[in-house]
Amino acid sequence: EVQLLESGGGLVQPGGSLRLSCAASGFTFSSFAMSWVRQAPGKGLEWVSGISGSGGSGSGAITYYEESVKGRFTISRDNYKNTLYVELSSLRAEDTAVYYCARGGEELDHFDYWGQGTLVTVSS
Amino acid sequence: YELTQPPSVSVSPGQTARITCSGDKLGETYTCWFQQKPGQSPVLVIYQNSKRPSGIPERFSASNSGNTATLTISGTHSMDEADYYCQAWDSSTAVFGGGTKLTVL
User: Fold this and answer.
1) How far apart are CA B87 and CA B105, in angstroms?
2) What SS3 state is found at B71?
3) Which of B41, B83, B98 lies closest to A100 in CB terms?
């Protein structure tokens, strides 16, 4: 059974940083592109970032970003730990959202499995 | 790139609900549809324009042509009441529609 379990959310001050993790199980993690998708309170879904599947540790994976987070968010993966990460920095109030990890992340992929989400609140 | 959905659609139980998603030349790429119920994660209900994942009821179907993709729910059940999002790719960026709240009343 495919499972995605996010962690690392919490309250952070504007300008601060946070690292989110997504532990994957039930499939060959290295073979699949992965994404982070967020949802602000009461709002719709917004794709944030994606990373290609890759061999080895995952350090050679191709990364993709939504325009508003380029230079502030960094997506990465550790295929040995079956874990997806996103480093959030220079956080703004508008980054407040539930962050979901989802399987799929490259052109023409479909997001077929989602985690339960982790809430990030940016506030002073 | 933008995908436009109506904010809300209402349907009576047992009737057919149609939710549209509009975008420039949308029919030239694949569209997916997601269902999200309050407090839950999104669930993929349609991929590659018209394919249903395992476990999704046959009453869910979809099409994509021209500038419009359409999700159709035939014989709508009360359990289908949810937010629905379309999604497509544009230049390696995933784009979601703003979502449509389906009310079954």
Assistant:
1) 26
2) strand
3) B41
